[in-house]
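Page 42, continued from yesterday. The earlier attempt failed because a stray header line got pasted into the input along with the sequence. Redoing it now with the clean sequence only.
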Amino acid sequence: MTTLRQVLAVPGMTPLLGISLLARTAITADGVALTMYVLVALDMSYAAAGIVVSALTAGVALGGPLLGRMIDRRGLRTVLLTTLVPQIVFWLTVPVLPYIILVGAAFAAGLLMVPVQSTTRQAITAMTTAGQRRAAFALESVAGELSYMVGPAVVILCAATASPSVVAWGVGAAIVAGGAGIALLNPPLRAKDEADGEAAARPRRREWLGARMVAVLTMGFGVAMLLSGVDLAIVATLQEVGQLSWASVVVAVFGVTSVVGGLVYGALPRPMPTWLLLGLLGLVTVPAGLAHDWRWLCAALIGAGLLTAPTLSTVADAVSRLTPAGVRGEAAGLHSSAASAGFALGSPIVGAAIDASVPAAGFAAAGLTGLLAALVGSLLSRRSPAAAPSPPSSSQEVEPCDAGAPAP
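This time it went through. Structure tokens are written below.
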């Protein structure tokens, strides 16, 4: 774990990951908080709650590239302070908004969601050397898994013992606190050798958004769809056998193994191609549908868990390597949008497969989605090996989205 310790020793890295973890935990739970509010406080249906959450997710997906472009042009603090005000207004007023207004306000809040994940990834790229970057993104993915494990569980627990309105205020306060913390920390988004001159120029979109970048974004979309589908398939499988109460245990095992996989992968001396990791993740997900007991399901998902954080980290690493410094914010926003779209579409697609067949079909659909995204990503990454320029600091590295071809 020497490499991981070296990454944490980078000045500013530990507080950045810590503040990011706080904000991402709250952002991970914001959909659950709104769901609990609509279900309990408004006494409305799951469909009504789903519409609010979908509006929030759609806003996040659309707002990511726009906020990223603003960061490239105006700087980090300006954008963070611009997004904090709408978050304060939205979460404070959630308990008094009529349902129809709540839907529109959720979309607006998503559109101006504090860009914690994308700015953290930009800062990691700027603060680390090419040799440290893979381990740094592995730690960032581990933080994401921890936020996924903690955030929704805490919100559900609090909603059972406190008012859903108070829970919504708490989630909003954590989002604002995390965004304000990053604004105060103000991490660099460009390395010292990228701050001036040609590296700071903004290239035309067609110069960097080529086949290889599209390949990486496609794989980011695919892994998000897979993970969203796996969550739903777990619930459907355990509900069929009358063991739904064990779903939290299965999800926790999945999350813990992902954390372990991320830490191990970050310490390895060589990276693996993104398409290979995603393809393996898809392959090991399909047979999880054979499990018909929570214990066997835990065992069946260990392989998928071990591959989850490494796959997520290689996607983030590939985006950073393929993006010139002048458009890093926009690229990070596109990455976040691709992931948001994948999470939004994964559950309906897998849910349709489950409704048409059996819960095992959910794991099959999720795994095949990952395999298809890996195949498309592999083909696209070979289509134009020199299509996208990589940042100067990574010019001697192997692109993790390729099969081992030398970077341009």
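Notes: Confidence is low (pLDDT under 50) at residues 386-399, 403-408.
Reminder to self: strip header lines before submitting.
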